[in-house]
Design goal:
Elements (H helix, E strand, L loop, with lengths): L2 E6 L39 E2 L18 E2 L9 E13 L12 E4 L25 E12 L3 E7 L10 E3 L4 E8 L8 E6 L2 E14 L1 E5 L5 E4 L3 E8 L2 E6 L7 E5 L5 E8 L2 E8 L9 E6 L1
Antiparallel strand pairs: 1-17, 2-3, 4-11, 5-10, 6-9, 6-11, 7-8, 7-10, 12-13, 12-19, 14-15, 15-18, 16-19, 17-18
Amino acid sequence: MSRFTSTFAAAGAAALLVAVSFTAGASTTASRDAATVAHPNSVAAAVEAPAPPPDPNGARPDDTVTPNAVPSAASPAELQYVPITPCRVVDTRTGGGKFAAGETREYYVAGTFGISLQGGKTGGCGIPEGATAVAATVHALNVSGTGGYVRAWPSGQPEPEATVMRYGSLELAVGTTLSMRSGAGKDLLVKNRVASANIVVDVNGYFVPQMWAYISSIGTVIDQSGRLVSVTKTGTGVYTLVWDRDISICAGFAGSDISGYIESVYTSGNTAYVYVYNNAGTAADYWANVTITC
């Protein structure tokens, strides 16, 4: 199923600009090989946006204008929580063997690559590579000694002081939220301390940034949430935006900075098609704030 929605711009409405921060991987391919592959989101998010022209009937904005800075701290990222059927991503009993005391390992959590090799579900758990955290249950099994503790943190980041689990000589399961690296490659570092134990990680849901992007009149990305894979200007007033998931049953919305333009969004597969018209009903190039709601 696909959806088509239209948005009429309100006079004097200001552009909705949200600056986000999250740990992102690099970008050049969609493979999950941690050694050679970068983040699939090939469009880099900026933290600046140019101001719209004051005259709605004047010339369209110059995309080379120096943009106005938007402090990232002023607009923190808003994440969406997506629950899933509990799914295993790590089980050292069948993938990698027991953790030794003081040992650190790195794991995939999102995507499909490598999950089964670490004792998880073949094909992964349906977690998109844009996810920044997961709701998980961490298990300590077959403990040797009187007990120990587990730390977990995003790949590429320094080890934190906080722990996600302290376990005794008996088996233990703890529900927690695990922050992880966003993008292709391995997502999560896990360290076991003091005792040796098997570690199991089951995921119950994940957190992702909302899908939105601010597109210039020539089809470049001024800002985005990290969920946009690519954008192409395919005709006068026509922009094709590819996202990191199927949005066929999602609603798409687009709005211009000022009155004088009508913008519509059609969603199909992973793609949103944005159409821009002036008040005379003629296709026209213009900037658009695009939001996808699922």
